[in-house]
């Protein structure tokens, strides 16, 4: 792996970590950046696998809280209900992700115009939800009803269209189902752990034959930078959205998507 490839992998890892947990579509940003930088990973595995760095960031930040949940689960119904709610929300992504994996990677990941359009559409939706979200009924991400968790799980599957945003779809879904802004973000964090770990494992398995030493080197560099950036973002995000909401990210999506679409239309 040469120096220029290392720098691109580091930049994309940083971009992944900065955008994974805010509702702007990390995958959309990675694919568009890779397109304009001329970077294409083997089997498009880099863009999926480095997300594990962001997952480990969440595990690091919430380690104490998660340990409390799992250690008390045998005798605490609330802990068991929380674990079950995350698993219930995760299941739709398992089924649809496995069935649609090849189509997503070979068609949707290779359509930058679609990604740019989805960034814009998602930005508009985020701005609208800021205005029309119903009154808050659920202020604790660890106490969502199972039916609500399942609905969020199905909504999360929209993010299999790159540019939609996994965090964006889950946050919007939670807000429309009555979650507070902070609880919506936190449930999105918790749901990201099994979702992204599952995507990592399945994608690595599907593309095991095309990953060489260079590909693994790119992934390692991206992974480290994604982890560092994600730690910083998660610590900042909850305080920000509690005070200011999600409008900033809606406008960001519209601007990035608009600029990318204009560049693509111009032949870049």
Layout of SSEs?
Layout: H1 3-19, H2 26-37, H3 46-49, H4 51-61, H5 63-72, H6 77-106, H7 112-132, H8 146-156, H9 166-176, H10 181-206, H11 213-244, H12 247-265
Helix pairs in contact: 1-2, 1-11, 2-7, 4-10, 4-11, 6-8, 6-10, 7-9, 7-12, 8-9, 9-10, 10-11
Q: Kindly state the percentage of residues in helix.
A: over 70%
Radius of gyration: 18 Å
Order of helices and strands: HHHHHHHHHHHH
End-to-end Cα distance, whole Å, is 26 Å
Number of domains: 1
Question: Which shape, going by the Cα principal axes?
Answer: globular
What is the number of helical segments per DSSP (H or I, 4+ residues)? 12
Beta-strand proportion: under 5%
- The SS-based structural class is mainly alpha
User: What about the largest sheet?
Assistant: none
Low-confidence stretches: none
Summarize the structure.
By secondary structure, the chain is an all-alpha fold.
């Amino acid at each position: 792996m040469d120096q220029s490839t290392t720098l691109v992998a580091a930049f994309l890892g940083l971009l992944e970590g900065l955008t994974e947990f805010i509702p702007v579509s990390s995958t959309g940003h990675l694919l568009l950046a890779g397109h304009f930088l001329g970077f294409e990973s083997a089997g498009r595995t880099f863009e999926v696998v480095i997300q594990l760095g962001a997952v480990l960031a969440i595990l690091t930040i919430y380690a104490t809280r998660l340990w409390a949940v799992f250690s008390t689960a045998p005798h605490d119904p609330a802990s068991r209900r929380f674990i079950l709610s995350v698993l219930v929300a995760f299941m739709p992504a398992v089924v649809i992700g496995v069935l649609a994996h090849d189509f997503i990677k070979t068609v949707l990941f290779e359509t930058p115009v679609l990604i740019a359009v989805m960034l814009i559409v998602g930005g508009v939706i985020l701005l609208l939800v800021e205005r029309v979200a119903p009154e808050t009924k659920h202020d604790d991400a660890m106490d969502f009803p199972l039916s609500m968790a399942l609905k969020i799980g199905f909504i999360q599957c929209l993010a299999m269209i790159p540019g939609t945003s996994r965090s964006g779809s889950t946050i919007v879904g939670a807000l429309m189902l009555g979650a507070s802004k902070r609880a919506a973000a936190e449930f999105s964090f918790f749901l990201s752990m099994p979702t992204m770990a599952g995507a990592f494992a399945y994608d690595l398995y599907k593309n095991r034959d095309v990953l060489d030493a260079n590909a693994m080197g790119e992934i390692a560099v991206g992974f480290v930078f994604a982890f560092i950036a994600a730690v910083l973002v998660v610590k900042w995000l909850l305080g920000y959205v509690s005070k200011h909401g999600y409008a900033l990210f809606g406008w960001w999506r519209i601007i990035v998507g608009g600029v990318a679409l204009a560049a693509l239309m111009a032949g870049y």
